[in-house]
Hints:
Layout: H1 8-22, H2 28-50, E1 55-57, E2 62-64
Pfam families: Myb_DNA-bind_3
InterPro entries: LIMYB, Myb/SANT-like_dom
Protein name: Myb/SANT-like domain-containing protein
Amino acid sequence: MATSTFKQAVWEEIDSEFSKIIGENYGVDRLKGKYNRLRMQYREFSTLLAHIGVTWDSTSNKVNAPEDV
């Protein structure tokens, strides 16, 4: 990945492999959309965890934070 996203040939390869796994053609455009939404959610989550006192409990899959946060 030379830029912030994959090249078209790579997207097509990802789509092909994904189609083999799920048994239907998902489509490059849908994959790109899901990838971008997941990337935005990750950024928001990382920003949340950057606050002092905010932690992630992987056992319960919950965010722990003081009441004032």
